[in-house]
Description:
22% of the residues lie in helices and 28% in strands. The protein is built from eleven helices and 41 strands.
Amino acid sequence: MSEAPRRTVVVLAAGEGKRMKSATPKMLHSLLGRTLLGHVLANSGASGAERTLVVVGHKADQVREHLAEVAPSATTVLQAEQRGTGHAVRVALEAVSDLTGTVVVLNGDVPLLRPETLTRLLGEHESQGRGATVLAAEVGDPSGLGRIVRDAAGNLERIVEERDASAHERAIREVNAGIYAFEAAALREALGKLSTDNDQGEEYLTDVFALLASVGRAVGVCVAPEAETLGCNDRAELARLRALLRDRVNDAWMRAGVSILDPATTWIDVTVTLAPDAEIDQNTQLLGATHVAAGAIVGPDTTLIDTSVGEGAVVLRTHAIGADIGPEATVGPFSYLRPGSKLGRKAKVGGFVETKNSELGEGAKVPHLSYVGDATIGAKANVGAGTIVANYDGVRKSRTTIGEAAFIGSDTVLIAPVEVGAGAYIGAGSAIAKEVPAGNLGVTRAQQRNIEGWTARKRPGTTSAAAAEKAGAAEAGAAEAGAGAGVEKTPEGEAPAE
Ligand code: UD1
Ligand code: CA
């Protein structure tokens, strides 16, 4: 026979969260990279519990699906009808037979609890051998919350919901955070005695305290900072929690050696990792599995989702998702890196460039106004302004390969699948659909012809004609002076110099 776990966590997540006015269950709304429920589960880790039960009800399938992703080891228990927090815990405990030790109950909508506070709650509760301990806080505005009613000696008497409270009790500003520790047997017994004799006609978990106190079991209060106890009932509260968590996350990173130039406009998901000496400029969001290495500069005005930024890279005014930016690479301003964009060391993606599922080798450059999709670009290749990789023929997507140190003239269309060899050149304005072998010049442009005197004949009397006439006079003058050597333009010569 295996030993029963010493601590069991019960997370209450069956409610709809009506005040969110959302098709999504409240628990699944997100807060800097995790759902509310995800935060509560992560926070519960500090309890060291061997077993976690999550009570689901409203949109149970959706919540279960999410749990399978974020907490596959948690057991879900269905509370088919939401008949109150006490009922929810009762249903959860009915699902387990071998219950001893401490039961930690966490409301699913209180996400900012710190691990050390949970540890303190459990320490106090267990060391004093109490039947129940509630986490509470003194708050500025207690409205809507359960009040902590103490006797003259300061001992917890009961917890009263606002709608059932007297005017005197409503004036109490010490409130129930919805986070508790119970002794398993005492809890089970008290839950069996809960009444529904209250304004909502529900079984209140909070009534367990008065019930235990009445039979002489010790009950107590563990006081926590207000911010950790804030719940989420509507979207305004969610926004407030988000701002608090943002500050907490930013403070932690700054203390870990990351420069955050404007913390108020920098939003970093709890799932992001940053190295010391990374610098994050204002109006920047770092989301999902993003990582920024040491000495990299990100922002201003940048959103990185599931993107990694190598040491010393510079990424400004950029939107990137699923990209891998190599060390010392530069990106932006106004670049859009889509999934599978992989930039080698010192590669460059410049202004108004979009990349997708493409690799740029070490030192490769796409400096201006280009689309690069499904391409492999060799080291030190230079892709001229306005180059488009036409990767999609309307049915299929195909790959393009550009060899090492190839030079693609401006305004080239590379029609995939196509290959440009190492060191090859493409004439500006070409549409390349066939292989250009290494070292070749590929050019598809028609020969240029100039029709002499056209403006004067076809657009007489215009400003252009006047300008042409003036230039003609100057040119004639210059020719007379014997300085008229023509400049021969090579096709690639029209690519702007980097
Ligand atoms: C609850 C407390 C209140 C406390 C507040 C802190 C009770 C009676 N009241 O009030 O004292 O100040 O939390 O945030 O406990 N749930 C279920 N099944 C149900 C009902 C609720 O799983 O049948 C879940 C909800 O999804 C939620 C949690 O329990 O995660 C709390 O329920 P909620 O309705 O939000 O309680 P509050 O009114 O906020
Ligand atoms: Ca609540």
